Amino acid sequence: MSAARAGTGGRVGVGIIGCGNISATYLKAAAHFPILELRALADIDPRAAERRGAEFDIPAASVDALLADPAIEIVVNLTVPLAHVEVGMRALRAGKHVHSEKPLGIAAREARPLLALAKKRGLRLGCAPDTFLGGGQQTCRKLIDDGAIGKPVAGTAFFMCPGHERWHPNPGFYYLRGGGPMLDMGPYYITSLVNLLGPVARVAGMASRARARRTIASEPLRGKRIPVEVATHVAGTMEFVSGAIVTIAMSFDVPRHRHIPIELYGTEASLAVPDPNKFGGEIEIAELGQEWRSAPTEHAYADDNYRIIGVADMAHAILERRPHRASGELAYHVLEVMEAFGKSSDAGRAVRIASRPARPRPLPAGTELRTLA
Hints:
Helix content is about 30%, strand content about 20%.
C-alpha cells in the first residue's frame, strides 16, 4: 500500500502545509511521537511559516520545495477547509502520503478524487479527527465491544455554543461555504460514533440559519461584521447499520445548555462518553436499575492533547505495512453523513448513506505510549 520509502530509517519524514491557529497544537503534540521527523513547514503566506518555524525550530519552505523534498513521506494538510482537496491532490501527485485536517473536503463529490488518486498511486490518505484514538474514546469502544451495555439501541450527541466569533482571531471562514457547526464540529462526534457503533445507514435532518451577519467579539477584529452563508443550527437523526438510532444537534446558535456530549443507550446499560474533541475525560456507566458510576480509563493517550496521533499511527502503519486507523475512507463516510443532513433538510426526507467503511481497529488496552501497536 505504501510508496517507496525515502530512507529515513526508523523515523518517517513529515511536512506541514498550513501554519495557522491549529498548527501549534499539532507541533506541540509531535513531541510525544518520536517516529515523526518534522522536516519542513509551509504556508501560502511565507511569513506564517517562518514565524511558526522559528517557534518550533523547524525549517520554513515554500509549498513547492516541501512537496519536492524526497525525505518527506507524509504531508499534513492544515489549510482551511476550502483548500483541503486542492492541497491534498497536489501532495498525492507529488508522491506523498496525506493526512488532512478535518473535514476531508466540503462535499463528498469533491472529496472522492482524493480517495481515487491515493488508491491509484498506492498512497495513504488519512484525516482528522484522531481524537477517537484517545484513551477515553478507546475505553468506551472496549466497553461496547465487551458487551458492557448490551446491544446498542440509541444515543444522543450534542455540540451547541453561541459561535466561534467569541474566541477565534479570524473566524469569518466558519460562516462561509465549508464552515458551519456540522462541518466544523460534526467530524468529532460522528467519527466517535462510527468508531463506537459502526457506519451510518440513513440520515434525517433539519437545518436553519438564525442570522445573516455576525459580529466578531475577539481580537484583533472585534466589532467587524461578517456574513453568514451556511446553516448555523443542524439537527436530526442517524440510523446506524447496526440498528442503533442516535439524535444529534450541532449549533452555533445556543447561548448555553446542559446536555453532555454523547450518551449511548444499550439493552443492559447506558454509557456517558467523554467529549470527542478531547483525548480523555470522565466515563460513566449505569447498568439496568443502577445509578451512574465512574468507569476507569484503561487506555493510553488520555492525559494530554495528542492531536497528531493519527499521523503517528499512519507512520507506524507505513513501517508495519498495516492499515492506519484515521483513514480517508472513514473521513469520507463521515463527510457523506454530515452532508446528508443538509440534503435531508432541503428534500424533506431521509437520505441513505452509500459508503460503508470498516470500523477502525481498536487500540489495545495498556498500549505503551509511542508504539501504537
